[in-house]
C-alpha cells in the first residue's frame, strides 16, 4: 500500500506523456510516410530532390542562417559579457541590466520593432537616404542579412548571460598564475579564460542554433522571396498538403533534437570547483586603454541599437491611425490607441485570450513538470532516471511549427482522452500547444534544484513516519519552490508572446495578442499594433519582476540568469 500512491502517479504521468506528447509526434511522423493514403517515402524523396528547388533552398537557407547566427551571436554576446565583467566604466550597472532587454521582447514584437527602425521603410535607412540624397533607403535590412541581424539582436543574450556568469566565477589565481609565467593579454584570454568558457559557449551556441532553425517571424517579415524551412511548413499546410508538411516538420525536428542533444550533453554541465584555500578571488584580465575605449564605445552603440526599436514601438503606440504616410515620423499623436484597447471589449479580447492561455499553460506546466521531475528524481543517478529526464524534456527542442502540425494531424478528430472532442478549431488547442512546448522548462528547473538537494532530509522525514504527501508538502516543496517559480516565469513569458504555433492553430474568437498585432499591421493600423506590443512588453517586464517581489531578491539581470541557468 505504501508504494500504491507513487505507482499510481507514475502510471498517470506515463499515460499523460504518451497520449498528449508522444502520440501527436508519432502521428505526425506517420503522416509524413503517406502519399495518396498509402505508405510511401515520396514526401522525403521530394524534400531532397535536387529538382525541387523550393525545399532544397529552404533547407540550405535555414542551415546557413543558423550557422551565421551562432557565429555572430556568440562573438557579440562574448564581447558584451567580457566588457560587463572585466572592464570598469561609468554606467556599467545600467548597461548590465539593459543588455537583457531583447529577452523581454516577444519574437513578433522584437522583429516588428526592428523593422520599424532598420527595415526598408524604417527610420534609420530613410534618415540616411535624406542625408545622402539617394534614390532608395540606405543600409536597409532585407533578405538573409536582415534575418541574421535580427537573430543576432535576439539571441546574443543567451551567450551574454551564460558567459557573464562563467566569467564572474573564474578564479583570479588562474590569471595571476598565467601572468607569473609571462602570459599577457590575448594569450591569457586564449589559453586560460576561453577554456573556462567552453561549457557556456557550447550551451549558448546550441540554444542559438536551435532557436534559429525554429525561427518563423524573422524570415516571415525580412526574408522576402527567400525560402526557409519553417515558412515552407506553414505554406505547405495552407496549401492543404498535410503529408508533405509533416515530412518537413520531421526533418526540422531531427535537426533541432540533434542540437538539443548537444546542449544537454556538453552545455548544461556545471563547471567543477577547483580546490583552494578560502573564497576564490574574482579574476579580472587587464585590458589595454585603447582596447578598453573601443569595447566600451561599442557596448554603448550596441545598447543604443537595442533601445531604438523599443523606443520606436512606444512612440508609434501614440500615433493616430492614418497620420504616418510618407513623412519621416508621424505628425499627430494621441492616447486613443490605449483608450480603445482598454475600453473596447473587442480590442481587449486578444490580450485577455493571451493572459488566459498563458495562465492555463503555467498551471498545466507546473502540474505535469513538477510531477515528472520529482518522479524522475527517484531514479537519480541511474540510467533510467537520466533517460527519463532526457525524454521528458525533448519537446522543448521541437519547433513551434512542428508542434502545430503534430496537433493538427492528431486532434482534428475526437479522441476519448480529449473528452470525445476534436481540439482543432477550439480555444483549448492553444494552451495545449503552449504546455506541450514549454513544460520541459519546469522539468529542467525543478530537476536542477533536486540534484542539489540533500536527500537525507527526505530520509529523516520518512523515518519519522511522515506520509508521502507530508514529505512533499513540508520538505520537498519549500526546497524546490524557487525552481518552480523560475520555470513558471519562463513559461508565462514564452506563452504570452507565442506566435509560431498560434498563427497555425487559432480561431478568430481565440486569437491571442501576437496574432492580433500581425492582423493590425496588415490593415496598416500601426498605432493599434504598437499599443498591443507595448502592453505585451509591460506584462513580460512585470512577470520578470515577480521573483524579486516574492523575496528572491537580485536584479532583473540576475533573476533572468538564475532562471536560465536552472532551466537550461
Characterise this structure.
- The longest helix has 34 residues, at 53-86.
- The model is unreliable at 267-279 (pLDDT under 50).
- A two-stranded antiparallel ribbon has the order 1-2.
- Helix 3 (53-86) crosses helix 11, helix 7 packs across helix 9 and helix 19 (456-463) crosses helix 20 (468-496).
- The chain is mainly α.
- The two termini are 37 Å apart.
- The chain is 72% helix and 1% strand.
- It contains 24 helices and 2 strands.
- Output the radius of gyration: 25 Å
Largest sheet: 2 strands, antiparallel
The dominant shape is globular
The helix fraction, in percent, is over 70%
Total domain count: 2
Could you list the spans in which at least 5 consecutive residues all have pLDDT below 50? 267-279
The named CATH superfamily of the largest domain: MetI-like
- Please identify the structural class as seen in this structure: mainly alpha
Number of alpha- plus pi-helical segments: 24
**Strand count:** 2
The separation of the N and C termini measures 37 Å
Provide the CATH topology of the largest domain: MetI-like fold
Kindly provide the name of the CATH class of the largest domain. Mainly Alpha
Question: What oligomeric state do these chains adopt?
Answer: single chain
Query: Major sheet: order of its strands?
Result: 1-2
Beta-strand content estimate? under 5%
Concise overview:
By secondary structure, this protein is mostly helical. It has 2 domains: 1-32 and 341-568, MetI-like (MetI-like fold, Orthogonal Bundle), CATH 1.10.3720; 42-273, MetI-like (MetI-like fold, Orthogonal Bundle).
Amino acid at each position: 500500500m505504501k508504494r500504491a500512491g507513487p505507482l499510481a502517479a507514475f502510471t498517470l504521468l506515463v499515460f499523460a506523456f504518451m497520449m498528449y506528447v508522444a502520440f501527436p509526434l508519432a502521428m505526425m511522423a506517420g503522416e509524413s510516410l503517406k502519399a495518396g493514403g498509402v505508405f510511401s517515402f515520396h514526401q522525403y524523396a521530394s524534400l531532397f530532390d535536387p529538382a525541387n528547388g523550393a525545399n532544397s533552398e529552404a533547407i540550405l537557407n535555414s542551415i546557413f542562417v543558423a550557422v551565421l547566427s551562432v557565429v555572430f551571436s556568440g562573438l557579440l554576446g562574448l564581447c558584451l559579457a567580457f566588457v560587463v565583467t572585466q572592464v570598469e566604466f561609468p554606467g556599467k550597472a545600467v548597461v548590465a541590466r539593459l543588455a537583457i532587454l531583447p529577452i523581454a521582447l516577444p519574437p513578433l514584437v522584437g522583429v516588428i520593432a526592428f523593422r520599424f527602425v532598420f527595415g526598408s521603410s524604417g527610420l534609420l535607412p530613410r534618415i540616411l537616404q535624406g542625408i545622402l540624397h539617394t534614390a532608395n533607403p540606405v543600409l536597409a535590412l532585407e533578405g538573409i542579412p536582415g534575418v541574421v541581424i535580427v537573430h543576432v539582436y535576439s539571441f546574443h543574450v543567451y551567450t551574454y548571460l551564460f558567459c557573464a556568469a562563467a566569467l564572474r566565477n573564474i578564479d583570479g589565481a588562474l590569471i595571476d598564475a598565467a601572468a607569473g609565467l609571462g602570459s599577457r593579454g590575448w594569450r591569457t584570454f586564449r589559453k586560460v579564460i576561453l577554456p573556462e568558457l567552453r561549457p557556456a559557449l557550447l550551451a549558448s551556441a546550441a540554444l542559438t542554433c536551435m532557436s534559429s532553425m525554429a525561427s518563423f517571424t524573422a524570415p516571415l517579415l525580412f526574408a522576402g522571396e527567400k525560402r526557409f524551412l519553417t515558412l515552407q511548413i506553414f505554406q505547405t499546410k495552407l496549401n492543404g498538403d498535410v503529408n508533405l508538411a509533416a515530412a518537413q516538420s520531421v526533418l526540422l525536428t531531427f535537426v533541432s533534437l540533434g542540437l538539443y542533444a548537444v546542449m544537454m550533453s556538453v552545455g548544461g554541465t556545471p563547471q567543477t570547483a577547483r580546490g583552494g584555500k578560502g573564497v576564490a578571488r574574482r579574476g579580472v584580465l587587464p585590458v589595454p586603454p585603447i582596447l578598453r575605449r573601443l569595447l566600451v564605445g561599442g557596448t554603448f552603440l550596441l545598447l543604443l541599437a537595442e533601445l531604438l526599436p523599443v523606443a520606436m514601438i512606444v512612440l508609434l503606440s501614440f500615433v493616430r491611425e492614418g497620420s504616418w504616410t510618407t513623412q519621416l515620423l508621424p505628425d499627430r499623436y494621441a492616447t486613443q490607441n490605449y483608450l480603445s484597447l482598454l475600453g473596447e471589449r473587442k480590442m481587449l479580447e486578444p490580450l485577455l485570450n493571451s493572459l488566459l492561455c498563458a495562465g492555463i499553460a503555467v498551471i498545466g506546466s507546473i502540474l505535469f513538470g513538477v510531477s515528472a521531475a520529482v518522479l524522475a528524481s527517484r531514479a537519480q543517478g541511474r540510467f533510467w532516471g537520466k533517460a527519463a529526464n532526457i525524454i521528458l524534456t525533448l519537446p522543448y527542442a521541437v519547433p513551434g511549427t512542428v508542434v502545430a502540425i503534430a496537433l493538427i494531424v492528431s486532434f482534428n478528430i475526437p479522441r476519448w482522452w480529449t473528452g470525445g472532442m476534436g481540439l482543432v478549431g477550439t480555444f483549448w488547442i492553444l494552451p495545449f500547444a503552449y504546455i506541450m512546448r514549454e513544460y520541459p522548462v519546469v522539468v529542467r528547473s525543478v530537476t536542477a534544484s533536486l540534484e542539489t538537494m540533500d536527500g537525507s532530509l527526505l530520509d529523516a522525514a520518512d523515518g519519522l513516519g511522515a506520509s508521502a504527501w507530508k514529505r512533499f508538502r513540508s520538505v520537498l516543496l519549500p526546497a524546490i519552490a524557487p525552481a518552480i517559480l523560475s520555470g513558471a516565469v519562463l513559461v508565462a513569458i514564452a506563452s504570452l508572446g507565442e506566435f509560431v504555433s498560434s498563427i497555425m492553430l487559432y480561431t478568430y474568437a481565440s486569437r491571442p495578442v501576437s496574432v492580433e498585432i500581425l492582423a493590425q499591421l496588415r490593415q496598416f493600423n500601426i498605432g493599434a499594433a504598437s499599443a498591443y506590443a507595448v502592453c505585451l512588453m509591460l506584462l513580460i517586464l512585470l512577470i520578470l519582476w515577480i521573483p524579486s517581489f516574492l523575496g528572491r531578491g537580485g536584479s532583473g539581470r540576475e533573476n533572468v540568469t538564475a532562471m536560465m541557468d536552472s532551466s537550461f
